[in-house]
Amino acid sequence: MKIILSLILIILPLSIATAHHILGRPTYSLNEDSNTPPSMQVETHIGRYLIKYIVFPAFPLPNEPGKINLYVTNINTSQPFTGQITFKVRDNSWFTSNEEKLGIQLPDDNVFRQGFVLSKTGNYIITAIFEADGEPYIIDFTLQIGRLPAIGPIGITVAIIVLILLGVSTIQRKKLQNTKIRNARIDS
Amino acid sequence: MITVHPGLPIIWGIIVGITILLISIWAIWKPISTYTTDSYYSLLKLPIIGKLIHQITIIPWLLLVIKVIVVALFLLVIAAGLFGTPIADRNIATILTWNIWWSGLIIAVFFLGSAWCAICPWDTLATWLVHRRLWKRSDPYNSLNLPVPKQFRNVLPALLLFIILTWLELGVGVTVSPYATALLSLLMIILATISLAIFERKAFCRYFCPVGRTIGFYAQLAPIELRPIDSNICMECNSLECYHGNATVDGCPTNLVMGRLTQNTYCTNCGNCTRSCPTQNIAWRLRLPSTEAIQTARPHWDEAWFMLGLMALTAFHGLTMMAFWETWMGELTSFIGGSGLWSFSIGLIVSLLLPLLPYILALSLIKYFTNSELSIKQLFSQFAFIAIPLAFAYHLAHNLNHLIRESVGASSVFMNPFGTGTLPLSLIENQAKHTEMLLPAELLFFLQTSLLIFGFLIAVYVIRQRGRALLTSNPWQLSPMVLFALLITGYHLLLLMEPMVMRVSGVCLPFSI
């Protein structure tokens, strides 16, 4: 009896641990409009404002709709900012400045909501621009679209090293052969 | 995400200011006397540690064990960077590379000289791949063994790579990207392997490696050196195993002959000389710190550029972390257009060139005061040694700030190197991370103050001794160079006193709305 009970106690947690639901819903059905999507959050302060930037989902896939929620609160008064915010996006590649305007948003329940769909994998910069107390505020946030390739860089490194080593080996083998032939001729 | 570190309080700034002014007055007032550098203490004499250190240099597998551990950590960095979480604070790639290694490396030079080169994973991996031996003498046919082209037989390629590394680090933001950190690590393996496969000996270590050359020059200040125990034995040696190697051990990877070695700059501490020397005549010893920079290191044109470049780049690191730098860059970007990287690149170039103007002006004034027949080029090489203590002192003071303020809790990444399933640091956690310190703030300020004074004092010694050997024993004639050192130290002090704006990577959080 003790053995059976022990076995049940061992097996029981394993079966519980296999559940994959959040609030009764399977995770694969979560999207940017769901109530509990995984998200990316950045908090910062600039001038007199505390900024909270949240992206849904955390790492959107190419051509997948995503959403930015921006909270802007005055540090001194704790009052939310009520003006309008312009959202822009640019590719975070070296020396490029291809910037596109995503939209201009007014607060909706104290949140500035901006949707987006980006087609290419990579790192992007989201810029939020607003004006408060006669001063311009420009804040950049990073946004990663898709998963950056991991095997590619390893493959390239291995390929370069193998090519170099093979090249050196071939050249040295020829040199060695020539030396042997030359020595054989001298000896004969 | 931005966090601000407080700068050095004004009282510490005043202490530095008064002390360096007093040193300056002493430097141009007191007649210059001879500087003696012949006090040494062999580490072999130390009871247990001495023998242990000697064994590490003699027994190849002991060093190999350390190399294997370092290579394993390096490969872990690459794997974590490519496959782990993109959250920099949770990934071992960024924490180990930038917070621990890059900050701690310069501090290690202060005690161990260029010992890092002996266990460098870039060179170890390249050696294993090309030579296909763990430690024994390599087959000469595994490499083309070509001589490095004459125009590259200097440290200017290393300086160029160091500028590129700084550009990647601060401009592109490699430090806050585990992925980019892994790519940079892979690139360094490729460069080291290509160099070893094509060129003779270890050309990458000698001419191209920006990290190796940086710590090599800083090692001129280190209180430790690998030298002959009895120089008479080296004088009578004709076989030069330290240079050529023997049947089982490779020769010196950077073309050094132990009997004639006067400076640490190019020694990689690989231990080949200690293992190949038939009389076991090479060992570690302690010496007066900075003797090489003050007196014994020989001036070279390319090295002078590297030393001055190093000084400009270390200050540039600090400059980019100032709040006003962001404002300048923002204004420049809005003026010239394009991405911020253009304005950053312009800022980098200007910062590199800026110290040259007062330096050349100081040299011209010294030449005028002393009526010297030496050319500006000769003086440029000779006095460039003052850049090493000035750069090193600021570099160390700056890195101490990083290490002491940012390393608390860093060990947690070793438990989960890939950061799998980790949550990001919240604003409060981030602030807590940056306010909890490894050492008390007052101790940090004391160390930073002491370092700036130490750097200035050594720079003054360099000016007086090198000036005396070349030009004059009249100290006031060297006052323009003392003023230059004062200007640079003042600039470094201002950078340390300003609050330091830290760029922290974006944080991710499963969040409910």
Task: Give a quick rundown of the structure.
The complex is a heterodimer of chains A (188) and B (513). Helices cover 28% and strands 38% of the residues of chain A. Chain A is an alpha+beta fold.
What is the topology?
The complex is a heterodimer of chains A (about 190) and B (about 525).
Chain A: H1 2-16, E1 21-22, E2 25-26, E3 38-46, E4 49-56, E5 66-74, E6 85-91, E7 99-105, E8 112-116, E9 122-132, E10 135-145, H2 151-187
Antiparallel strand pairs in A: 1-2, 3-4, 4-5, 5-8, 6-7, 6-9, 9-10
Chain B: E1 2-5, H1 10-29, E2 40-42, H2 49-58, H3 60-83, H4 92-112, H5 121-131, H6 156-172, H7 178-198, H8 203-208, H9 210-218, E3 224-228, H10 231-236, H11 241-244, H12 272-276, E4 282-287, H13 291-296, H14 301-319, H15 323-336, H16 340-353, H17 356-370, H18 376-383, H19 387-406, H20 412-415, H21 427-435, H22 441-470, H23 479-497, E5 500-503, E6 507-510
Antiparallel strand pairs in B: 1-5, 2-4, 3-4
Strand content of chain A: 35-45%
Radius of gyration of chain A: 29 Å
Contiguous uncertain segments of 5+ residues of chain A: 12-32
Q: What share of residues of chain A is helical?
A: 25-40%
> From the structure provided, what is the oligomeric state, counting identical versus distinct chains?
heterodimer
Element-level helix/strand string of chain B = EHEHHHHHHHHEHHHEHHHHHHHHHHHEE
* Major sheet of chain B: 3 strands, antiparallel
Number of DSSP strands of chain B?
6
Strand order of the main beta sheet of chain A, please? 3-4-5-8
Beta strands of chain A, count: 10
Radius of gyration of chain B: 23 Å
Numbering strands along the chain, what is their spatial order in the largest sheet of chain B? 2-4-3
Q: What sort of overall outline of chain A do the alpha carbons produce when their principal axes are compared?
A: elongated
- Give helix and strand order of chain A, one letter per element, not per position: HEEEEEEEEEEH
Mean pLDDT of chain B: 88
Number of helices, where a helix is a run of at least 4 consecutive DSSP H or I residues of chain A: 2
CATH topology descriptor of the largest domain in chain A? Immunoglobulin-like
The assigned structural class of chain B equals: mainly alpha
